[in-house]
Amino acid sequence: MAAGGIARQDQQPVFVLHTYPFRETSLVVELFSRQFGRMGAIAKGARRPRSALRGMLQTFQPLLATWSGKSELRNLHALDWGEGLLLLNGDALMCGFYLNELLLRLLPREDAHEALYDHYAQTLRALASDAPHAPTLRRMELKMLQELGYAVPLTHQLDNTPILAESEYLYQPEHGALPPDARKSGVQLLGKTLLDMARDDYSDPATLLQSKQLMRMLLTHHLGDQPLHTRQLLIDLQEL
Q1: Predicted TM-score of the model (pTM)
Q2: Residues with pLDDT less than 70, the chain
C-alpha cells in the first residue's frame, strides 16, 4: 500500500487486450493480469510521441505492469517487457485479435483466472510458432468457457449416461448432449467428437469440423445478440 492509501502493484504479469483514446493525450488500456484478471487503466500521456509507455503498449506480448489506484480505472505508471517476445503474423494475428475480443466480452472485470491467463499465454506461443490455427482456437475457446464456469459436458449426458463414440447426439447449451430429436434445436454431432475434445485430440477432420460448429453455437449463446467483429473476418479468411 503506497502513501495516501493508494494501492500500488509493481511488475505484475499482464497482456494488453485493447487500447482506446482518452482525453487529448492519454489512452485507456484493457489489461489481462494473471493475478487480478481483466483490468482497466489510464496510460497518461501515452499518445504523445515521446511517451515511454507508447511503444510498450503492444498486444500479444508478455509485459510487466506497474499501476496504482482503487477506482475502476487504475493509473498505469510503467510497463516492462516480460519473458519471451512473440511475433504473430497473417492469420495468426487475426486469431489473436479474435481471442482478445472474446476475453473482453466474456471476462468480468477484476475476476482473477490464473489458469486461463496461463492457457492464453500458451495459446499465443502456439500461434506464434505456426501451430495449426483451428485446433489451437478450439482449445482456447473451450478452456475459456470452462474456466468462466460455463458447463461444457463432454463425456456424459445430463443423466450421467456415458457418451458413446459411435452414437449421434444433439448438443444444447443448457443441457449438453441429448439423443437426436428433429423437433429441438442444437448442433448434431457424433459422440466421438465430444470424447475427442475431452482428450484434446483434434486429429480427426470430422472432430475438427463438428467442434467448430459446437463452439460457435456455445459462444453465440453466451455472448448474446451482439456478434464478434473478428469472428466474421476469420470466417471470411479460412473458416477458422
Answers
A1: 0.90
A2: 1-6, 182, 231-240
